[in-house]
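Homework help board

Subject: predicted structure for assignment chain

Our instructor gave us this sequence and asked us to write out the predicted structure in token form, then describe one feature. I got the tokens but I'm not sure how to describe them. Can anyone check?
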Amino acid sequence: MTILDTARKILHEGSICDHCLGRQFAKLSTGLSNDQRGKALRLVLAMEAGAQKDETLKDLLAKSAGKCWVCNNLFEHLDSWAQKAITALSDYEYYNFLVGTKVTGLLAENEEIIWAESGTTFAEPLKTELNREVGKRIEKQTGKKANLKKPQIVALLDIENDNFELEINSLYIYGRYRKLIRGIPQTRWPCRECSGKGCERCDNTGKMYQESVDELIKPHLVAAAQCEDTAFHGAGREDIDALMLGDGRPFVVEAKRPHIRGMDLALLESDINSKAAGKIEVLGLKFVESETVEQLKSMKANKIYRLKIEHHTTEEKLKSSLDIISGTPIKQKTPTRVLHRRADLERIRRVHSTELESFSENIAVLIINCEGGLYVKELVSGDNGRTIPSVASLTGSEAKVIELEVIKVG
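My token output:
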């Protein structure tokens, strides 16, 4: 069947606009819009009808000029929809966008009918053309570019309700944080008793801890990005009672539904650090893509810790235990202290190097360079045999961490 034969069959189905006629051949030729294809087909068919004195075809062409049964003349409103989208987008800062369409059941059914009856294999979906044509008009009026892969905002055309819904994609900022005081967690921690609702235990705050690294950053980002909320993604986490020193722990903070994207990150960094002085410090803020979150979560970074421990052994025995630990695979079952929230598994981790920084009666300071995921508190205490070997098991005496500092991640 030729293209003109297919076009004739389409005209037999009823009145159809140039957009919907041309769209049935969208995969043929380049550099043409669908309405241009439709006009060209009508012209050729009219010429053929005239040359062959085909009155039936002339009649078909005349009748096909009425209201389009496929789209109900949707394409007459492209400028109006583009303006509605621009109005909806005007409250947000964005550099690229994408138009999407929610078609009604009737439109989807009409499209299936024309495909089945005409037998065309060159068509594209109606919503693909709508997205493209409205997008071209937005581009022309705003100077912003459509982005098919990673749009910052999706303007979703709701045909049934004649309006636009906006899907605002998050903004991602990478940095490193240093935690300078003990007793604050990395992220918000709802109260275990009330699950965040507020109770006597949490003084009706809904929180186990009144501050976190996350919450010390959040208000400044909310103000700068004018976003609805934030989410904090860290490359692992340190214990609440641990310091995070050195050049800090990598993190990504996500600004959800931001109105502003082009904020001054140097100013944001300065604002966070001045308001949270003595508690946390953020370093090296920069914009990143969403994939960085997954990369961060899957990092297997080495860690260096400084541990102040309480012990009941000699310096010689302690040094000997550290030497053994450095060359032996460490078998660790999930520590007793976190069994309530983590599966009881056995993991094998390695210690790359150890150093006895200082030693005195009952107190010593250790430097441990180890593989990510190793529980260093239990490396010292042994956790009642759940970590093997440990400082306690190798010295034959009790030992425990009394102060912990993370001094390098990665």
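Reply (TA_rk): Your tokens look well-formed. For the description, you could write something like this. The domain at 303-409 is CATH 3.30.70.3190 (Alpha-Beta Plaits). That's the kind of observation they're looking for.
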